[in-house]
Amino acid sequence: MITVGIVGATGYTGVELLRLLAPRQDVEIAVVTSRELCGTAVSKRFPNLRGHIDLDFVAPDAEAVGACDVVFFATPHAVAMDSVGALIEAGVRVIDLSADFRIQDVGLWERWYNTTHSCPDLIATAVYGLPEVNRKQIQSAQLIAVPGCYPTAIQLGFLPLLQQQLVDCSRLIADAKSGVSGAGRKAVEDYLLCEATESIRAYAMSGHRHHPEITQGLSQYAEAAVGLTFVPHLTPMIRGILATLYAPVKTGTEVSIEQLQSIFEDRYKGEPFVEVLPQGELPATRDVKASNNCTISVNYYADTDTIVVLAAIDNLVKGASGQAIQNMNIMFQLEETAGLEAIALLP
Amino acid sequence: MITVGIVGATGYTGVELLRLLAPRQDVEIAVVTSRELCGTAVSKRFPNLRGHIDLDFVAPDAEAVGACDVVFFATPHAVAMDSVGALIEAGVRVIDLSADFRIQDVGLWERWYNTTHSCPDLIATAVYGLPEVNRKQIQSAQLIAVPGCYPTAIQLGFLPLLQQQLVDCSRLIADAKSGVSGAGRKAVEDYLLCEATESIRAYAMSGHRHHPEITQGLSQYAEAAVGLTFVPHLTPMIRGILATLYAPVKTGTEVSIEQLQSIFEDRYKGEPFVEVLPQGELPATRDVKASNNCTISVNYYADTDTIVVLAAIDNLVKGASGQAIQNMNIMFQLEETAGLEAIALLP
Amino acid sequence: MITVGIVGATGYTGVELLRLLAPRQDVEIAVVTSRELCGTAVSKRFPNLRGHIDLDFVAPDAEAVGACDVVFFATPHAVAMDSVGALIEAGVRVIDLSADFRIQDVGLWERWYNTTHSCPDLIATAVYGLPEVNRKQIQSAQLIAVPGCYPTAIQLGFLPLLQQQLVDCSRLIADAKSGVSGAGRKAVEDYLLCEATESIRAYAMSGHRHHPEITQGLSQYAEAAVGLTFVPHLTPMIRGILATLYAPVKTGTEVSIEQLQSIFEDRYKGEPFVEVLPQGELPATRDVKASNNCTISVNYYADTDTIVVLAAIDNLVKGASGQAIQNMNIMFQLEETAGLEAIALLP
Amino acid sequence: MITVGIVGATGYTGVELLRLLAPRQDVEIAVVTSRELCGTAVSKRFPNLRGHIDLDFVAPDAEAVGACDVVFFATPHAVAMDSVGALIEAGVRVIDLSADFRIQDVGLWERWYNTTHSCPDLIATAVYGLPEVNRKQIQSAQLIAVPGCYPTAIQLGFLPLLQQQLVDCSRLIADAKSGVSGAGRKAVEDYLLCEATESIRAYAMSGHRHHPEITQGLSQYAEAAVGLTFVPHLTPMIRGILATLYAPVKTGTEVSIEQLQSIFEDRYKGEPFVEVLPQGELPATRDVKASNNCTISVNYYADTDTIVVLAAIDNLVKGASGQAIQNMNIMFQLEETAGLEAIALLP
User: Which of B133, B286, B290, B308 could form a cystine bridge with A199, CB 3.0-4.6 A?
Assistant: First the structure.
């Protein structure tokens, strides 16, 4: 039995962790914290959990947190960094869903997040929790930085192309479409139903915080600096990310769709949560709703010598809480798919 | 008073023509045809028109059609081509919202539409009804080919860049997001609410029929062959197209955002329905809902030396029926904005 | 030319007033106020108004307000009451979209709104702006209390039954479904897209502030006290109210559907914005979207001797800003339908 | 290991059965039929099942069907009745999700369904599969008629009131709101996204086929004939039914909200899938999305002496496939909640 704590569990990644962990026999949710809702029943905040979670929110500094085997941080950025050090010293393993430990270059992180990092030393010890890349390191990690939602879809989509050195990495394009739950459960005017439904728009054209995280990963896979134009779009739906990825084929390189299909299938063979679709089938975000899957389609436009990859995930599952649990399973030598086998909800 | 006929008015572009034309004092809707609903009240099909249109659908071969000053075809492709010849001979001006006269290369049209064109001679006489490009020719045209919805947004977005020879036209990318009304009012499973809402997906990856129409226009503006990767996406909303356009700056050319902004503002100065947004503002499809506007934002990514243009329209208005009426206004020397001044519906 | 001021125009009823008034030749929007956005361009807040309204928000106490012919209050409750007195004294006519002057019984108002009314004397002078009932009094009114959205649909639906004394008024039921825009443009968690879409729920079961307003009207039409069970529901859409109204036929009374249909048609004959549907047709909120229409269907269940009336409106138009303008038209001896003829947007 | 067949599995109740059954260790899905898609992979029709179901659709008359322990019919009405007899004779237990065996009065069924029943003798042997009422009979049933979606929500909501003889059953009202998936996956114009989203409307005012099924149940619980006004509404969302139920208190009877709350809590104590909410909390369909729960709130309006019950279910789970599986669990002496413990998906 693994005892689990969840810090800052009042948002959508919090409830999703609880939804996925509560039914498990091998996990005990010991403590759920919220500074704001301290003393309130968790199921009062999340009626779907009534009868499944019989806990009240407690203050985040509760001793109980330090007694867990593993603690998930479902907090905004710049919160986890203040608590993680003590927990790790106490032997607790930490899985951080926020951005605090995702970027290895502290200065870069501090510029994008406009904050001084309070425990820069720990960053180097953190493992970037993308199992398809870092499975081995995750096993023994004390501290996991769970990838962001856009970074998950975009990295998984570009990865095989970059590792095979097929494309000109100076002009990659990621046109990504996200459901509104990516913005969290914050009372912000822009995300009101009347503002966000029946409309689509791009945002963060001057720079999105996921940009340095994505390029850090892509550069590593390409073993070279990459140039990425990243345009996120707010899409009128609750869940889902679809990343439409454009990569020009490297000058002098010839590719065929059969070869591309093989490269993707080979790269992801055996991966429990990445599915390369047969040629001609295209991912829709609905096909992964509420599941931990990432579905990918690779396409080739001969006219423009451009490869187009489509990658779909549920931003709250493979893009956040599901992936966090996948990391936990690996860290604790459990079946990697434990608690994550649920089939996508259709319709 | 201009007498108007509408052929095939049972779909969304049909009802939109009626909605926009019915309140006008200078237009008389004389005849509305539908083979299928012949004899049914128009307002039975479209309850929003009750009290505004007091006509029954008649058969499309009705003599009344030939007595109109102008006839709109809101039919599927390969229908208008069979009737336009006779109408024009009878002195009727024709505005075709379908694809029959959009592509000048007959062979190309026949391949994409998998049909033999029944009046290829008329194609050369047709004017492509994009007023921002062909205003003069529209004035005297007998036959207008109204641009498709994607082509309108994509051409207006790329136009200034191509005319200024700023970008490498061999690798243009158009990532376009369309509401479901673009698929028309056809009882097709894919467009059921339960199939299309709460999800986004790309489609037509192997080629969309708007592709040759778009490249025909772009090549003309660039005065060179263009290579375009075009990926349309089905977006969970009724109305709207957002085109996110990516163009690599031509090697050896330097651009600045101020210069780009000026180029766009200069190109569209005085255009009643194209609005170049101030730097930092981005279009959302909701801001043009039910209006004939196209809003455009130009952006520059120095890191990748890539220009990103965003263009938003209502696919049923500027992308179809509104633009058709804009053409009619020009053809009949009316105020170009007549009947099209309505402010977008927000929220 | 009527000069118009709008106080508190940052919400949905504000932008709707502006959308409907801006295109008019006979109206000049002289001043638009907002304490919060003072100094900001109106079109910055509402991008749909760019090019249509070239004003900045000013402070609500601006002198310009007092110089208008008519001032609309699009404020939350308990705001207008502090300013209306001075305006009326200055000869300005006032149309209040808030609840401040809707309820004649001051004590009742104060209990429901939990506030002391600051100008109780003016209440008696206010005319309840439901033109279908009070057209004559509206003509000469200095102060109009525009009915609430639910009250408009529910009163128009029940009115003919009550005036004809056909039903047992002690057990009326109004099951009403409203789009989310009824909650206004407030950054409240409950109205986030992720909270409100893909779900329906009842709310305010312990009492909704529109309840006393509705029963005040119904009692007047019935010339007797009425008992009303009113259950509002938050419906996952932007605009629209559908009221499903249940009334038991009075004991000893016999009714037929033909008779009911006639009663409704007679009552609303000549009303420009109330449409009694033919037997067998049912209203959908989409059929009145963005229009000032109220569509009504009357039905009879012989088995349970119950009459069921369905009434649909756009809550922001006939349920608020459209009706406010209808009042203005009547007050200023303009065509009652001026600026309100727009056809509903479908789809 | 229970071997299962599913007949007619191409619609939403079919895929939902598969989603819920596929992960189970104690169930083997042996055969999935479709006349139309015979030979197609099930996962081609339902991409969410890829990797979970490795079967092709077969013809419905396949021998394999007769070899199953239990067969689910997810067919339109008037299909199961032709096959059930032979299956039962072969010792197969049958769970019919269609309407063929729900109504005991054959003549009544034939009038509403406008069809001659092909095996009227079997009707009397069928058990109405509402476990909260018929748990014992279900255990030994050979043939289960799974209740319809509206009937499930409405009966569970009214049941305690009727059994306690608290209300005047001659004037019950059920105002029910259903998501569009209740209409099935049929290519019908009315259920297109562009027709059904952003709108609400009542339908079937002249009589809905669930009406006789509901009154059959209610009359049984009341031990008296009931009069029910039932108005279903098409609500712009995929899943969910909210039933708002109105019942006048019987003359001479006094009720209090505390007493009502107790009655409901007592009636459903121990029921695994019915949850009576605490006073003051109200059900939203989102809180039961994708779960087998029915949440109920009871309310009392003293002014009109009317009880208002709210009941929410997911129409595809507790309203169809989940309830069918709950029946299977009971029939085969499995844990009643097996495979149905999933927590509702929020958001």
Answer: B286
